[in-house]
Write a structure and sequence with these properties.
- Helix content is 37%, strand content 21%.
- The chain contains 8 helices and 10 strands.
- The strands form 2 sheets. The chain has an 8-stranded parallel barrel with strand order 1-2-3-4-5-6-7-8, surrounded by 4 helices.
- It is of the alpha/beta class.
- It is globular.
- The chain has one domain: TIM Barrel (Alpha-Beta Barrel).
């Protein structure tokens, strides 16, 4: 089970995570978010990570050049696009040599929008590293603590679509149920391992990583 902890914004948290060894962390560059990190701190965080923990840059409706330049300066190989970026925008990011983790916000309306977008990606030759599915909450781009529709994803995610990373309200207490219900390729958490918004709790992070891996066996 691929495990990602998103919204890391302090060097102290990075040092704790280095010991826990999830597969990836998320560095959030979306200014309105309480989890936003400045580039200088992000560079210090990256320096604390072992090779087995990949830093991923999270962007929401940023300009293309900003995405590419930030990724280049921090030596990121993967970016998470979490806004309303067009398929053509995603294609440009991929052409620049970056892998893309594409976020989709899904509610009870179903997966029709995801299907249409992925079909357009195929037309443009885009090969996503994975799709991250979060809960749809009006006016928010993620990090709300709301769970995604597990049953809908379990029944509707197609085998020929990119790998599914399940996000949205996952905690140490519910991630095992989520894995058993949806059978995703990976899981992602932010608020579920925080003592308060933007501040990770070491014990919760340890529990999340341990439970996620144990329940995927």
């Amino acid at each position: 089970m691929w495990v990602k902890i998103c919204g890391v914004r302090t060097v102290e948290a990075a040092r704790q995570i280095a010991q826990l060894e999830p597969d990836a962390i998320g560095l959030n560059f979306y200014a309105p978010s309480s989890r936003c990190v400045d580039e200088e701190t992000a560079a210090a965080i990256v320096n604390e990570l072992p090779e087995c923990v990949e830093p991923i840059g999270l962007f929401v409706n940023h300009a293309l050049e900003e995405v590419l330049q930030t990724a280049h300066r921090l030596n990121l190989r993967t970016v998470q696009l979490h806004g309303d970026e067009s398929p053509e925008f995603v294609a440009e990011v991929q052409r620049a040599g970056l892998e893309v983790l594409r976020a989709f916000r899904v509610g009870e309306e179903g997966l029709g929008g995801v299907a249409a977008t992925l079909a357009r990606y195929a037309e443009l030759g885009i090969e996503l590293r994975a799709c991250l599915v979060d809960a749809r909450v009006k006016g928010a781009y993620g990090g709300t603590g709301k769970t995604a529709p597990w049953e809908l994803l379990a029944n509707g995610w197609q085998p020929d679509w990119p790998p599914l990373v399940l996000a949205g309200g996952l905690t140490p207490a519910n991630v095992c149920d989520a894995i058993q219900a949806v059978h995703p390729w990976g899981v992602d958490t932010a608020s579920g391992v925080e003592a308060e918004s933007g501040q990770q709790d070491e014990i919760l992070m340890q529990q999340f990583v341990d439970v996620s891996r144990r329940c995927s066996i």
